[in-house]
Each structure stands twice: as structure tokens, then as C-alpha cells.
Design a protein that fits this description.
The structure holds two protein chains of two kinds.
Chain A (H helix, E strand, L loop, with lengths): L4 E2 L25 H9 L6 E5 L18 H8 L3 E5 L22 E4 L7 E3 L5 H15 L8 H30 L5 H29 L15 H4 L1
Parallel strand pairs in A: 1-3, 2-3
Antiparallel strand pairs in A: 2-4, 4-5
Helix pairs in contact in A: 2-3, 2-4, 4-5
Chain B lengths: L10 H9 L1 H16 L25 H7 L8 E3 L2 E2 H8 L4 E4 L3 E5 L4 E2 L5 H14 L12 E2 L1 H22 L32 E6 L2 H11 L7 E5 L5 E6 H6 L5 H19 L9 H15 L21 H10 L6 H5 L9 H15 L6 H8 L8 H20 L3 H15 L3
Parallel strand pairs in B: 4-7, 7-9
Antiparallel strand pairs in B: 1-2, 3-4, 5-6, 8-9
Classes of the chains: A alpha/beta, B alpha/beta.
Chain lengths: ~230, ~425
């Protein structure tokens, strides 16, 4: 399991060049609403929006700080549309600048897909703050708060990892036997059966995870006003 | 679970790192890598490295560029409606660009620091730099450190060397392809242009970060959860986008790992782009050819054959005895079966090694018309679609195999098996 980031880039609709020499539209910042629409796209999930900075660059350190508690963050993040914006988003001409206007802007924020109920967060904040924020937004976004299902999801992911490892182990056994001087065909057949069985178990676990992860979104009218930045810290 | 950030790794996270499918494979290879290097892709500094505006090796002088065999450092158009500046805007940082005889290369790769004491890397690096040196009047790279401009020059050299080798292997000549600006019908047998039958030079983007990779794919193509994307560009020609950070997260930190992946992908693109025929060439053949290119960089780093890797087996990269064992025990797909493979799932670990071995054998056939073979198996069949096209190509492969090698699939299979038994040693 890993962070599944999306990297939206605003497409200017006004110029559609067919050759490499036609004029280019000047880059300009969108309004906050336009920027949110652009990064959310058709994805109804709540947003987790992070801007890269020179400290956390090339890492997911702003969210994942080591320790087994990363698991909780990684699982909860799956119910979010996780968006990573570039270092130059603080440039006033960057299309998404309205989301992070300058270097003083928060490092990341959580919000519903339309940008409401925003919770700004800093990368040096505590895990508890992060999870509380994630949980609050999830509660607003979905008919049923998925956060309590985290332990079950994690258990199943762990099982899938173990089963994946089992397949690698069995395939190695099979390969060794197939390449050996005196192969035992019965042994190869047995391993193949085992592999098929493990694959079926993986499919079943994946289906169970899919079921746990699929949740009905709450109608937009339930959305609540933004939480002040200080309250979230 | 891949939590491979710079933060700490817990026992549970480590357990999952070992156990997740891809990372487990990477760990197996790390056993091999540990022997060879602790070098790092890019720099340890978390800030984006600022690239020097002027190339220190040519000082951007026209005569120096010509000596190096370059057309220029950009800006230039890449594909329909997209220029180098558009890619920089999408990524949000400056790239280094160079146009060579057959490629347009852009990189955000940062300084690579190699660790001392890795004889394999030192040898490879020394040989490459020796070949690069005559291209520059002033050439004094810092030992153990490959700066971003030097990485650009090295990759430009690597790409052009691969192009030369491909052309030589299949005896291709400019007359085999349409000329620049020649008006040809869409299904012309010589393709649409001079670049292996394509109108455009191949574009290669070597990107340091996953976010760079994600932004280019999101802006113009489809986001992919992988380290490379190979695409036909709008308007023709082939594009390769590769991400170094993903390889590092998989445990492949050496530049050789990135190089071997690029080598494989470039070969795939040569075959898939030939005469703009569009991805329809036989999977076994292009995969075997890609593994040859990859293993030429480093035999231990055929990363796309990850299913051939065995945890805790440091000799798993020695494919010859493994293929010999598979052949002796008849655990290899028949030639006809392999020719029908269309998906990666069908290429198991043994399948990868067998494809590599078969292509090695095939290319070693003296006096054979390999050009006709290559053109036969990449017949564009532009007027056919989907299954009809696949069937036509399959029939063409059967036909051209008999024409070129005077053997049907069963005879090819038998001849290859004999060669394996005579050539490979346990």
C-alpha cells in the first residue's frame, strides 16, 4: 500500500495548437472555485491537497512520518482524492495559486470535493490532528464514516501482502524444480495447485477490501462551513 | 505496503515492504545490489537541484554542439502542439534538453553520486566517459559525481549508441524509409518519415520525481502507476517517459538500473514504432530484444524480467544454466505458443528467459535476412483493426519465419533447443 497521488495540471482551453510554433496562452491564476473544480475533476471523494516544499520534496514525509501509525494514514487516505501540487504553486501566476497563495500558506489541507469544510494542516502537526481532521471530513463526505473500518481494511491488506509473498515463494520453488537436473513433476504440479489456491484467496481478499472501500457519498447539502486554521492545529 | 519514504520504517511496514509483490522482488534484487553499490539516484538534498543554464561541456557554442553531434539544446517542438516549454510549465521546473540525430531528450535528473568501491560501476563509467570525451573540447568530469549536464550527455550517447546498434543488427538503411517531407500514403510500406519510418524523432523524458512523471502523463496522456510510459505521440513518433524516483523506491538506486530500464524501453519503442505500425509486434520478440539491451547494461539488472528473480538466490541472473534446465526438462513454451502471447501475464519468469534466449539465438543466425524478418513481423496492416489485424500479423509471422529461416515454428523450436543444449553450460 502506498499513497496514490494525482498530479493535476490545468489545461488552458483557449489555445489548441496543432504545430509547435503557434502562440501560447499566458499562464494565469484561476479563482479558488475554478482551481478546486480543476483539481477535483469528476472525482467525488473529499480532497487531501498537498503542496510540495523544499523540505518534504521527493518524499511523502508531510504525511508519513515513520512508524506503524503510517498504516492508519495510508488507509484513511484511500477514501480521499490525494492531490500533490508543485513547488511553484505559490507563484502568483500558477493556475492553482489560489489554493496556496504564498510561502506562508498551510502545507496541506483537507476538504470536501467542492472545497468546503476545509481543514488546513501543517506537516509538523501531530498524527492525532491529522487523523481527527481526516475522520471529520470523511464523516461529512460519506453516508457512513469509513474511518472505523480502517482496522479491518488494514488486516486484509496485510493478508494480501502475505499471500503475495507466498506466491513469490511458491513460484521460486516451482522454478527451481523446473530447472533442476531431476525435476519432480508431481512436486511441480502440487506447487501449481498451491499457487492457484493462493491466487483465489487474494482475489477474495481484494473483493472484500473493495467492498469495504466503496461507500456512498453524502449529498452535498450536508457540507459544513470551513474550520478555522488555528482550530485545526 | 510501500512506505518507502525517508521517515522511519516500522517492523510492520518493513514486513509489508518485504512482502508486497513488487517490493519483494526489489528486495530480492537488493541482495545483488548490496554486493555492487550503495550509490544513489540523484542527490540526497531534498531541494530541487538548480541546473546550470549553460552547459559546461559545450558552453552552448555552435562548433562544440556540432562536434558533439547535437542539433541543439532547445527550445524545440516535441509532438503535435507541444513544445519543450509546455513540458516545463506542466512539471513546474526547468528541464535540460538536447536534440541529437535521432532523439529529442529532456531530463530533470539531478546529480548522481556513485559510491567508491563498486568495480562494475567504475568500469562501466570509465568506458562510457572514454567514449564521450572526444565529443568535447573541454572534458574534465568530477570523479564519482555525474552532474545533470553530464547525465544528459551520457544518456544522449547511450540512446544514439542503441539506435546505431539496432540499425546495424537489422541492416537498416535510409532507403528503407520515407525521406524527410516526402509525401507518402498513410499505409506506405516505407512508413511516413526518415526516423525508422516515422515523421518525428523519438522523444525521451527522463524524470527525477514521480510528480514530474505524473504531471506529464496527466497533462497529455493517461496517469499510470508505473515507472515508465511508452506512447505513440500525437502526430507520430514514439515517446518514452521514465521516472527515477519510482525505481529508487523499488530499491534500485544505481544509475545503471535507470539505464537498463531506458535501454529496454527504447528497444520496445524502436520495434513498436517501426514504420508507425503501432504496438502490434510480437510480445516475445520485442521483450527478448529488450532484455538483451537491458542485460548489456548490466546482466543483473533485467528489471522487466522481475518474475525471473528469486529471493536469496544471488545467481538467479545467470540465465543460461536456468534456460538449459528448462529445456532439458521440457518446461518451456513451444515456439508457436510463445508467438501467440499477447499479455505480460503469459510471460512467466521462465517465459522471459526463454524469450531472451530465443531472440539471442535468432540474431546469431549467420547470413539470415533479419531485416525482412523484422519488417515482416511489424507489417503495419493499417487497413485492419483489432482481432483481424492480430490474426493477419500472426499469419505474417508464420510466413516470414519460413521465408527468412526456411523453418516452420516447430523446426525453429527444435533448432533453438539444440543450440541451447550445445551452447549453455550448467
Amino acid at each position: 500500500m502506498k499513497m496514490d497521488w494525482s498530479y493535476p495540471v490545468h489545461k488552458s482551453a483557449e489555445v489548441e495548437r496543432t504545430s509547435g510554433t503557434a502562440p501560447v496562452a499566458m499562464r494565469r491564476a484561476l479563482s479558488r472555485e475554478e482551481a478546486l473544480r480543476s483539481i477535483a475533476g469528476q472525482d467525488p471523494r473529499p480532497l487531501l491537497v498537498l503542496r510540495e516544499c523544499s523540505v518534504c520534496n521527493k518524499t511523502d514525509d508531510a504525511l508519513l512520518k515513520g512508524g506503524s501509525e503510517n498504516d492508519r494514514t495510508l488507509v484513511l487516505a484511500r477514501w480521499f482524492n490525494c492531490v500533490k501540487l508543485p513547488l511553484d504553486v505559490v507563484d502568483p501566476t500558477h493556475p492553482f495559486n489560489a489554493l496556496f497563495p504564498n510561502d506562508e500558506s498551510e502545507h496541506l489541507f483537507l476538504a470536501l470535493a467542492d472545497g468546503s469544510s476545509k481543514i488546513p494542516l501543517e506537516s509538523d502537526g501531530s498524527r492525532t490532528e491529522l487523523w481527527t481532521g481526516m475522520s471529520r471530513v470523511l464523516e461529512l463526505a460519506y453516508e457512513k464514516n469509513p474511518a472505523p473500518a480502517y482496522a479491518d481494511v488494514l488486516k486484509r491488506f496485510t493478508k494480501i501482502d502475505i499471500l503475495d509473498a507466498k506466491i513469490i515463494e511458491e513460484e521460486a520453488k516451482k522454478g527451481l524444480e523446473m530447472e533442476s537436473l531431476r525435476p519432480d513433476r508431481k512436486k511441480v504440479d502440487d506447487v501449481e495447485r498451491k499457487i492457484a489456491d493462493v491466487r483465489a484467496q487474494i482475489d477474495a481478499e481484494k473483493a472484500a477490501v473493495e467492498k469495504l472501500m466503496t461507500l456512498a457519498p453524502r449529498p452535498p447539502a450536508v457540507a459544513k462551513p470551513s474550520v478555522p486554521a488555528k482550530a485545526a492545529r | 505496503m510501500d512506505t518507502s519514504t525517508q521517515g522511519g520504517r516500522t517492523r510492520l511496514a518493513l514486513l509489508r515492504i518485504r512482502m508486497s509483490r513488487i517490493v519483494a522482488v526489489a528486495v530480492a534484487v537488493v541482495v545483488v545490489l548490496v554486493e555492487s553499490s550503495f550509490a544513489l539516484q540523484g542527490s540526497n538534498d531534498s531541494k530541487d537541484e538548480t541546473f546550470e543554464l549553460v552547459d559546461p561541456y559545450t558552453t552552448n557554442q555552435r562548433t562544440s554542439l556540432e562536434r558533439a553531434g547535437y542539433v541543439g539544446f532547445g527550445p524545440f517542438p516535441l509532438w503535435d502542439g507541444v513544445r519543450t516549454s509546455d513540458v516545463e510549465e506542466a512539471i513546474g521546473r526547468k528541464l535540460l534538453w538536447v536534440e541529437t540525430a535521432h532523439f529529442k531528450l529532456g531530463t530533470t535528473l539531478e546529480t548522481y553520486k556513485s559510491a567508491k568501491g563498486d568495480p562494475r560501476e567504475e568500469k562501466r563509467s570509465k568506458e562510457e566517459l572514454k567514449r564521450l570525451e572526444p565529443k568535447f573540447a573541454k572534458f574534465k568530469p568530477t570523479a564519482g559525481k555525474v552532474d545533470p549536464w553530464l547525465r544528459l550527455h551520457l544518456y544522449a550517447q547511450r540512446l544514439e549508441e542503441q539506435h546505431t546498434e539496432f540499425v546495424k543488427t537489422f541492416s537498416l538503411t535510409p532507403e528503407d524509409f520515407a525521406t524527410e517531407n516526402e509525401k507518402v500514403p498513410f499505409d506506405a510500406p516505407r512508413g511516413q518519415g526518415p526516423y525508422l519510418g516515422q515523421v518525428r524523432k523519438a522523444v525521451v523524458l527522463l524524470l527525477e520525481k514521480q510528480s514530474h512523471f505524473g504531471r506529464v502523463n496527466t497533462r497529455w496522456f493517461t496517469p499510470v502507476d508505473h515507472q515508465s510510459a511508452r506512447l505513440r505521440m500525437p502526430g507520430g513518433g514514439m515517446l518514452l517517459i521514465t521516472c527515477a524516483e519510482t525505481l529508487v523506491k523499488w530499491g534500485y538506486e544505481q544509475d545503471a538500473a535507470l539505464h537498463s530500464v531506458v535501454a529496454a524501453d527504447v528497444v520496445y519503442n524502436f520495434v513498436d514504432g517501426l514504420r508507425d505500425h503501432g504496438y502490434w509486434s510480437p510480445l516475445w520478440f520485442k521483450t527478448g530484444l529488450a532484455h538483451i539491451a537491458s542485460r548489456k547494461v548490466d546482466e543483473k539488472l533485467a528489471i522487466y524480467a522481475f518474475r525471473s528473480v528469486r529471493q536469496h538466490d544471488t545467481d538467479a541472473w545467470k540465465w543460461e544454466p536456468r534456460v538449459l534446465g528448462l529445456v532439458a526438462n521440457d518446461y518451456v513454451p513451444k515456439w508457436a505458443e510463445m508467438a501467440a502471447f499477447t499479455s505480460w501475464d503469459q510471460l512467466t519468469g521462465p517465459g522471459h528467459m526463454v524469450a531472451w534466449s530465443r531472440v539471442t539465438w535468432l540474431l546469431g543466425q549467420r547470413g539470415m535476412d533479419l531485416k525482412s524478418w523484422l519488417f515482416g513481423i511489424t507489417e503495419p496492416f493499417h487497413d485492419l483493426k483489432g482481432d483481424a489485424r492480430a490474426r493477419a500479423l500472426r499469419a505474417r509471422e508464420v510466413e516470414v519465419t519460413v521465408q527468412v529461416f526456411a523453418k516452420n515454428f516447430a523446426e525453429m523450436d527444435a533448432a533453438w533447443r539444440r543450440w541451447v543444449q550445445d551452447t549453455y553450460k550448467r
